[in-house]
Batch of 3 targets.
Target 1
Amino acid sequence: MDDEPKSPAEMKEIRLNRKIAQDAEGIKAMADIAAADIAIRKRTADLRAQRLAREAAERDKPVEPKAKAKKKKTAK
């Protein structure tokens, strides 16, 4: 790094550039979060639709009871 003392104008410019960079990073981070939120909501809606369709199909087609095996009686 440069060990020379900076003038007040140079320090102000450095702070301003740092602030602009931080603002840009913040905007990008918020956009990434919003995109992830939209993706999660879409995936959740798709899974909910699949679950409801599966449940409706199961409701329309009841499960047949399994036949129990009969035990043979042995003659004594």
Note: DSSP finds one helix and no strands in the chain.
Target 2
Amino acid sequence: MKRSEALVLAGDIGATKTDLGLFSCSRPSLPPTAVVTTTFASRGADGILKKTREFMAREKASGRVVTGCFGVAGPVSGGRVRAVNLGLELEENQLAADLGVPAITLVNDLYATAYALARYGDDGVEILQEGEPSRPAGVAGVLAPGTGLGMALIQKTSPPLIFASEGGHCDFAPRNPVELELWQWLGKCFGHVSRERLLSGPGLCNIYRWLKGLSPESGCRESAAMVVAAAQVGEDKALRALDIFTGIMGAVAGDLALLGLTAAGIYLAGGMPPRVLPFLRRELFLAAFRGKGRLSGWLEQVPVKLVLNPRTALFGAALIARDGI
């Protein structure tokens, strides 16, 4: 990179991993260009701060970063964020001082994802339901199952309006006897059964454990990746777990579509949807998405798109830093 080039620092701090990037924004009419990126395991505020300093030092970025933005998996209020799934607390001014950057903005990670999708939403997506797209100024929704479950709404105006959400922690509503039994099993372990307890990487493991007849208190040796791999080779309980999981994903996506009247579409983002794409292409997912009684016909008109770019939130953070949001 050119040593005189001004840069923006962007970060996507998730419960499992953190993506960092230095971006060039020298041409405001074009999208930010990634100069260099890196990924490391998320390990609390001290670890993230240390890794970010090392990254900036390695890339000789000190004094050249003019602003920055971090998307964090947690609610942001008054320039502070507490990431529940990471045990992490950050504050904008302190973070900027610690990194030697003039200004840092903290946003919810789904806010960053939604901002990128609002600006460049149809770049790198797979269409799961064509629907009938509304005018560009319509509302879209983002559902992002990963280590946790994120949600957001987008008002596609210029500039776009983004509404972050902690809807992943709302109550899970069973739709059938199977899900009712699963809800009761989870209730014995967690008390409050949120959507995130099922619709996330750990949630897929919870479903698999239940199908295997394990107690809620028993440890889970399997990861979501292991369950998906087992399903790919035809293991019965893993296949059943993926059916339940994608059905719940469709139902929750349909709930979000109704909640926001998302005529402009629903985006599936986060780490889990691309991993289970073959299952999302099956009728079970869309049947659950549309299965809302008298509103089923309306939901058939809502476009459903899967986001394939794993660094959409990082790109959104760079856009927010550049645009001074």
Note: The domain at 124-308 is CATH 3.40.367.20 (Hexokinase; domain 1).
Target 3
Amino acid sequence: MVMSVGDHELETTDQGFLVNLNDWNTEVAERLAALNALELTPAHWEIIRFIRRYYQQFKHLPNARVFTKAIAKEFGEGKGNSRYLHGLFPDGPLKYACKLAGLPKPPTCL
């Protein structure tokens, strides 16, 4: 599939994940959010930037439990819990954080 961002055509999977990690930028994230009926707030960006750093550091994606625990360690228990994360990403925090961050679909997500 192809997604248009400005004057660029970017290849995506059938579920809307970027095929090329290097195609990502904040404009792409905003477009992906709009396609998924999300309006990005500073709280969303905090999680998006966190998962990008995590992926760059560890070269893999965590499962949902490890993701939540890593958020708690980085930002505190108030943000590192399912209720908070589902409030930001109602259809699946890990899956949508990764999608909006331009990362691959986590292997543990349907």
Note: Strands lie at 2-5, 8-11.
